[in-house]
Design brief:
This protein is of the alpha/beta class. About 40% of the residues lie in helices and about 15% in strands. The chain is globular and about 80 Å long.
Length: about 475
């Protein structure tokens, strides 16, 4: 086996450029399908580093792919760069202070995610050229992971055809191979149409769309008792019908997120929620429109890929944090509750360590702790090709995802160290797959076997288009 140090040195060679990219993207937080500037930054970096670039992948203006190399296996490295609404935050401090009140912020670390993935791809590009190894690396810049399901649309439209295996990562407070489970999820809008009327003089002539939304909530709450145990149902009002209580609301709109561990269970639950909406419309004599906004599958595990990634982590070791990193992490932890700090330890079946602010070690593979499961559009890629995802420590232990504290730590030296470490782990795993045909064959055979047992069903309704956002005016 080749010595891994030259490949890691190539990561270090590109590190400054890519940490600069991460910081620039942090400073231009854009939400799902509006990542025009962030995508442009990634596209410019791909061109500057000599990749063959394909823009508007799967017809999505903020998706990009860069490829390098020739022949051999094709390894995809997946990046993201979308932000979240309402999480604007000044960097490098340990108190809530928005840059822009109510503005967007990188409260899930995707500024680091895309940059580290591209950093790994840059190192692999150079490694392929210098060693003459047959193979191709592809960097996929994927938008709208936060609820927009861009990768699901990309999978459906064939963007990953020809790929032999895929690798990705996510910022975390622990360094480990990610757990294989995720929740299949449909986000669906229910728009009720009624009839406006004077709420005092002629309420009997009105048909309240807001009443329909509230009755739907009651019905769904009763439904929870009769759903599979791993189901999750959440909702948010998008339009409550206006601010005038003396008008019977003629229109109201609510978005539901409907989740379960298995895609089939989730799709069955969607139909039951739709029936509840129909019942609410019947009770209120309103009409209801039901539109899927986005949908993702549950993860398809690949133990072969995960074992390879864990070996890469063990070769690399933990993230080399320093005393200044620890001091800032402790300041962040002072803003958290004991329950926050204990939660990630429960996930990895470890006893909380009160004096530990950052994870500088590798968590064992499949530690068997508590399940705290979310949803991701990476899941649909796992059904298309053998895939592994690694979590790498970039922030203080216990920092909740989707929080101002994540945004605050997004440009820190610790975050930069973590993203570089993630790039090295991903590059090493890709090197294993490119130089060990038996390993790649084993991963592909496992993937094929799982698909034979449970064929892939795209969770998106036929003909559904991604909810694209227009390019902003110059």
């Amino acid at each position: 086996m080749r010595n891994t140090r030259p490949l890691w040195d190539l990561v270090d060679h590109h590190r400054e450029d890519l940490t600069g990219l991460a910081d620039r993207v942090w400073g231009m937080p854009e939400t799902l399908y509006a990542e025009y500037r962030s995508c442009a930054e990634h596209t410019a970096m791909l061109r500057a580093k000599g990749f063959r670039v394909t823009e508007e992948v799967a017809g999505i203006p903020t998706a990009v792919m860069g490829e390098a190399g020739a022949g051999g296996p094709v390894i995809a490295i997946l990046g993201e760069y979308d932000a979240l609404p309402g999480l604007s935050q000044v960097a490098g401090i340990a108190e809530p202070r928005p840059v822009e009140p109510g503005g967007n912020g990188h409260g899930c670390g995707h500024n680091l995610l895309g940059s580290a993935a591209l950093l790994a791809a840059c190192a692999l590009k150079d490694w392929l050229a210098e060693t003459g190894t047959p193979g191709r690396v592809r960097y996929y810049g994927c938008p709208a992971e936060e609820g927009g399901a861009a990768k699901t649309f990309m999978v459906r439209d064939g963007a990953f055809e020809g790929v032999d295996a895929a690798i990705t990562w996510h910022p975390d407070c622990m360094t480990r191979v990610d757990d294989p489970e995720s929740l299949a999820n449909t986000r669906m809008d229910f728009t009720f149409h009624g009839r406006a009327s004077h709420a005092a003089a002629s309420p009997h002539l009105g048909r309240s769309a807001l009443d329909a939304v509230e009755l739907m909530s009651v019905g769904v709450n009763y439904l929870r008792e009769h759903a599979v145990q791993d189901a999750r149902i959440h909702y948010a009002y998008l339009d409550a019908g206006g601010m005038a209580p003396n008008v019977v609301q003629a229109k109201a709109k609510v978005r539901y997120s409907i989740r379960a561990l298995k895609l089939a269970d989730m799709l069955a639950l969607v139909e039951r929620v739709k029936n509840v909406a129909r019942g609410a419309a019947l009770m209120t004599e309103t009409q209801v429109e039901m539109d899927v906004f986005s949908a993702v599958s549950n993860n398809l595990v690949n133990e072969t890929m995960d074992r390879a990634m864990h070996r890469a982590l063990e070769e690399l070791g933990g993230v080399p944090f320093d005393a200044d990193d620890l001091a800032y992490a402790r300041a962040i932890q002072a803003t958290l509750s004991e329950q926050d700090i204990a939660a990630p330890y429960r996930v990895v079946a470890m006893t909380p360590r009160p004096d530990e602010a950052l994870c500088d070690y590798i968590v064992p593979l499949r530690p068997g702790g508590e399940k705290m499961v979310g949803s991701t559009d990476v899941a649909d890629v796992t059904w298309a090709v053998p895939t592994t995802e690694v979590l790498v420590a970039t922030h203080a232990i216990g920092t909740p995802a989707h929080s101002w504290q994540i945004t605050a730590q997004g440009k820190s030296p610790a975050a930069h160290k973590g993203m570089t470490h993630a790039a090295k782990a991903m590059a090493r795993c890709a090197e294993m797959l490119m130089t060990d045909p038996a390993l790649l064959a084993e991963a592909k055979a496992e993937h094929a076997g799982r698909l034979k047992q449970t064929p892939y069903t795209c969770p998106l309704p036929a003909g559904l288009k991604p909810p694209l956002v227009p390019r902003p005016a110059a």
